[in-house]
Specification:
- This protein is an all-alpha fold and 557 residues long.
- It is 72% helix and 1% strand.
- The protein contains 24 helices and 2 strands.
- Strands 1-2 form a two-stranded antiparallel ribbon.
- Helix 16 runs parallel beside helix 19 and helix 18 crosses helix 22.
Length: 557
Amino acid sequence: MSSAYLNEFLPVLLLLPLAGGVLTLFGKLFQRTERLFTGAAVFVQLGCLLYTVAAAPLIAGGDSIRYALGSWPEPYGIALVLDGFAWISCALIALISLIVAVNALSSRRSDGTAGYGASFFFFYLLLTAGMYGVALSGDLFTMFVGFEIIAIAAYVLIAYEKSPAGLVASFKYLILSSTGILFFLFGVFLIYRDLGTLSISIASRMIAESLQPGGAPVIHLALAALCVGIGVRTAFIPFHTWLPEAHAYAPHPVSALLSGVLIKVSFFSMIRLVLSFSGGYLNPLLLWIGALTALSAVISALVQSDAKRLLAYHSISQMGYILAVFGAASSLALSAAFMHAVNHALFKSLLFLTVGAAVHRSGVRNLYKMPPMGRDMPLHALAFFAGALSIAGMPPFNGYASKALISAGMKGSPAYWLLWITSFATVASFIKLSRIFLPIPIRTQPGGPKSRPLASVTVLVLAVLCLFFGIEGIRSAAWLQQMLEPAASEIDIKLYTPAKLYPVVWPLSLGIVLYLVVATQKGKQLAGVLKGLTPNLNTVLLFFLFGLSLFAAAAWV
């Protein structure tokens, strides 16, 4: 497809999900053919994926695609921008949304009915439209609108099954996301007041050309407020408290989409603003926040007995890895952060879909009470172990490749040792979780509905992608680097040498030891104490103010 056609068709990434969402609502009117209308979700994401694939050669060549809505140029109109950052976001949204949509259509709900209804897929497509809007927005106000669309759709989807815990989790998400967006709007106000524009590219040029180092502290405060607002959606400490409940009690496909894509799109947008608005002074803060997020969240994950809450805390922990390596600001920092974000999207979507299917089949969330499902769900079990080995950083899966890049990117940083401790605690967590997929015969068969064959295919596709990006790790990282930094030096790391493979023994060995300690009676008692330390809403709001103070202090210093 020529660049002219690519430019003209860029709004398709926004219009297709919106049009598909309207189409799914016809399933409410024609209930006998509801499945036909809800299938629009698959074709919409397939169309978006085909567009991003067609645009890949142009973006990899260092170009970008811009489209002015209504032919109104910046700063008067709304501009859509597909550059390297936006392309990675859009490709990730399209790929994971497509796979999860197929899985949702192929699953069975707790009442035995197949798939999810028209209203589910309406909000599902509205959520993806909001994510495309955030990724493509060329100005801060359009980004704000995208985040608000995401908040509304996610709020409904988290509570979709109307369980008491899901309703509480969605309400908590709505309160905290609304509080976070107020900080974002405050930053937008300061940018517009001082620079007279909301265009990210124009504001970036004005800051680079006219602001002296140490000057214009209000602009730095604006960036701090923007980071806090987006930080709520990215869920790093101290803005993470909404995520465990929201991801744990949402429908399983929604958990996969929230963890696999939503927090990545938020992270990508924050990094885009930090780089655009000369926010390098935030790197040390991001480094330590990321490392502490990774360690504290993995400790919380390790003491969980709810299978999906354990996965939810690991989403926070892995985002800590991504934030920490970006904050390290080394030559590999950007490519390592984005590579691990992409890999995390693949293996965490896989883990939520497989564990969610096991919870659905057994009717039990407590991993100590769930029967071993390995023989009852062999394909899901196989896919789960691919995801578990990926997140644990074991070769030849993708988590090993991106964590090797993170190690190289953080070499010499004292924060790296916090990530090293996190690595063997991650291994211990997934040894603990893997018991639900052991191939052990059970006397009483689970009574929940079985997944349909196509649902097994979707998790196997994700497992194959985890293996592919592990084997082709360096080539994949180099390609992502070409998208983000065309002039960057070539990545020169050999993954599968004895020197690189030998260190894997340490997190594996220490992870086994830690699991054996946690499995003792005293370990379980300590776990119960730690689980009881969940902060209340007042404490959460104090966390927000503390986080803003940290970013504001970094801005002023």
